[in-house]
Automatic annotation (TrEMBL):
Gene3D superfamilies: 5'-nuclease (3.40.50.1010), P-loop containing nucleotide triphosphate hydrolases (3.40.50.300). Belongs to the PhoH family. In the N-terminal section; belongs to the PINc/VapC protein family. InterPro entries: P-loop_NTPase, PhoH, PhoH2-like, PIN-like_dom_sf, PIN_dom. It comes from Thiothrix unzii. Residues 11-152 form the PIN domain. This is PhoH family protein. It comes from the Bacteria. GO terms for molecular function: ATP binding. Keywords: ATP-binding, Nucleotide-binding. The keyword ATP-binding applies. GO terms for cellular component: cytosol.
Length: 472
């Protein structure tokens, strides 16, 4: 097993295989502490290295990391441990790791209780962790795993066990911005002393300063209710002032987007972002029935067909299992994706069915619209570049941060990307509200003047759906 020459007071973390499958850079994220890899973990990594899935790619990256470190350190490092001090890679954590990477180099006698039967990989990892704890009584040995059941078993037999937290974007999903600030009715009394206003190309701008403006970010909205309601978007922020622009009121019938009007304040904010050519990426969070997909499709159709700002609409979503082959369904890529695109078809039915006109005319309209909407699988996105496209990523909460980065960086000149999702409905294994790729994008792009985010808080699907969401 690892050499006894590293008798540090730092903690010794025993990594489960699923931690490395989830985040290949986990080796470098434990700061000054040591990391230990049991032999069974290396064997499990070898079993999952083949394929084109995200897990297989992560496993191969882990193997490359270990191979590069062993090549640089020499054969003696296998017994002594590899120093992680100079192994910092871009994006591998908050600080450079300064501990050691240790390997299991000898067999161990099973230390497991008699009631843990079998020689499964989980039990072998537990046995290794128990042996390390006995061998290093002055060290804090901790098993790190994404597997809840393994952590429960470890706790039962007296081992310390933790989830892997370093991939989390936020400590609490409730810290995500809503995308708007509701201001008190006396806001103008305290913030209009040095206010300046002007108009450019039919848009009204205000330059403000004051204590409340310090928390505002570009791309966020402000709203004043009361007798004189006011809504605006923050365009620029400086240390001593902010510049805001009044928004269009999409609740008015004359401002309908492809026949759709906003039904509440948040939907109005969303339509302003979706129709703003200065906003390159929009993230919309919201519960079922809040209008995310309907508003996005309406804005996409209006700007693609009426205003011709974009050549076509590209829509994609996660097929669970994420990143795996979409199966042996017959047909083309779009036909294979059809079962996953029920939400698209439901919303198109609302947007494209006129109350009058012949059946032939409606069918012709549907066929024309579908020629402008391309349904793509995530599997074939890598390496592509989208020029002048309106890209919609549905169910984005099921994507990892790495997958989100891969998709968003496909955007070429003139392309707008819209990410839709509900972080309360995550289906991907090992992803949580705080580690989802959608959370990652919202948190990392906040404050960029070409990004916008809104959390839709009210369901508008039907009175039955709204009541069921609250009471069931």
């Amino acid at each position: 097993m690892n050499s006894t020459q590293h008798q540090h007071p730092q903690r010794l973390f025993v990594l489960d295989t699923n931690v490395l499958m989830h985040d290949p850079t986990a080796l470098f994220r434990f700061q000054e502490h040591d990391v230990f890899l049991p032999m069974v973990v290396l064997e499990e990594l070898d079993q999952h290295k083949k394929g084109v899935s995200e897990v297989a790619r992560n496993v191969r990256q882990v193997s490359r990391f270990i191979n590069d470190m062993l090549s640089a350190a020499g054969i003696d490092a296998i017994h002594a441990g590899i120093s992680l001090l100079n192994q910092r890679l871009s994006g591998t954590g908050k600080g450079a790791a300064s501990g050691y990477l240790l390997f299991q180099t000898e067999a161990i006698a099973s230390q497991l209780p008699a009631h843990l039967l079998g020689d499964s990989a989980d039990n072998t990892i537990l046995a290794v962790a128990l042996s390390l704890r006995d061998k290093h009584p002055n060290r804090d040995v901790v098993l790190v795993s994404k597997d809840i059941n393994l952590r429960i078993k470890a706790t039962i037999i007296g081992l310390k066990a933790e989830d892997y937290f370093n991939d989390q974007v936020l400590d609490d999903a409730d810290l995500l911005p809503t995308g708007f600030h509701e201001l008190p009715n006396d806001f103008w009394e305290t913030h209009s002393k040095e206010m300046k206003s002007w108009q450019e190309h039919g848009h009204t701008f205000y330059k403000l300063s004051g204590p409340m403006t310090t928390s505002w970010l570009p791309g966020h909205f402000i709203a004043v209710t009361g007798d004189a309601p006011f809504q605006a978007i923050v365009r620029k922020k400086s240390p001593d002032h902010v510049v805001i622009e009044t928004v269009r009121d999409f609740t008015e019938p004359r401002h309908a987007v492809w026949g759709i009007n906003a039904r509440n304040r948040e939907q109005n904010f969303a339509l302003n972002l979706l129709t703003d050519p200065e906003i390159d990426i929009v993230t919309l969070l919201g519960t079922a029935g809040s209008g995310k997909t309907l508003l996005t499709l309406a804005a996409a159709l209006a700007q693609t067909l009426d205003e011709q700002l974009y050549k076509e609409i590209i829509m994609t979503r996660v097929t669970v299992p994420v990143g795996e082959d979409i199966g042996f369904l017959p047909g083309t890529e779009e036909e294979k994706m059809a079962p996953w695109m029920g939400a698209l078809m439901d919303n198109l039915e609302v947007l494209t069915q006129p109350t009058t006109g012949s059946k032939w005319g409606r069918n012709a309209t549907d066929e024309f619209l579908m020629s402008k909407i391309k349904v793509k699988s995530l599997n074939f996105m890598r390496g592509r570049t989208f020029l002048n496209r309106f890209v919609i990523i549905d169910e984005a909460q099921n994507l990892t941060p790495k997958q989100m980065k891969t998709l968003i960086t496909r955007a070429g000149p003139g392309t707008k990307v819209v990410c839709l999702g509900n972080i309360a409905q995550i289906d991907t294994p090992y992803l949580t509200e705080t580690s989802s790729g959608l959370t990652y994008v919202v948190d990392h792009l906040k404050g960029w003047e070409h990004a916008g985010h809104v959390t839709l808080q009210r369901g508008e699907r039907s009175r039955l759906a709204d009541y069921a969401s609250e009471h069931l």
